Sequence to fold (201 residues):
Amino acid sequence: MKLEIVQAGNPVLRQRARPLSVEEIRGSEIRKLIESMRECMHEAPGVGLAAPQVGLTLQLAVIEDREKYHKDVPEEQLRERERRPVPFHAIINPSIEAIGEEKTEFFEGCLSVSGYSALVSRARAVRVTCLDENGQRKIIEASGWYARILQHEIDHLNGMLYIDRMKTRSFTSMENWVEFWKGKPVSAIQSQLELESSGRF
Ligand code: ZN
Fold:
């Protein structure tokens, strides 16, 4: 099954996805879908892909942060983002809660908002309760970049995009991100964009 990623503006991205039954998860259709989503995510490439992004309003997302994606990222940036490899897995019918009050803010992108990026504030750590690709109940406790991926993907299942949460003044094309912002510490970007000067306008 060859899947196509839909772009912002497609109403499927704004619907609340429906949960899957354990029977469906163990059935061949969903198994095949998970495999196709994995291929689609690798091809993109991306670290997460939610079913609504391929036009299906199902509470299903796949996640994988491969070590090979990290070799072009400076060590300092991996450390700042607490980005570590995450093996392939699916999350199904997830619920999510923040662990603690701590937030982090980094540039984030989305395969369905292709070519753009923006600063998004997210919980640093989360707990996700879901079913896995075998229909088994699973609790994931994650921090750092993996926690951000989980929040981003679960937003998709609720009809949300990162642009609903972004610091709008930080919105940038990827080209300009590379030219002006890449590699700068987030605190410097925040002050350059006057993100902390609320009430000035
Ligand atoms: Zn996305």
Observations:
- Helices lie at 22-26, 28-43, 75-80, 144-157, 174-181, 186-192.
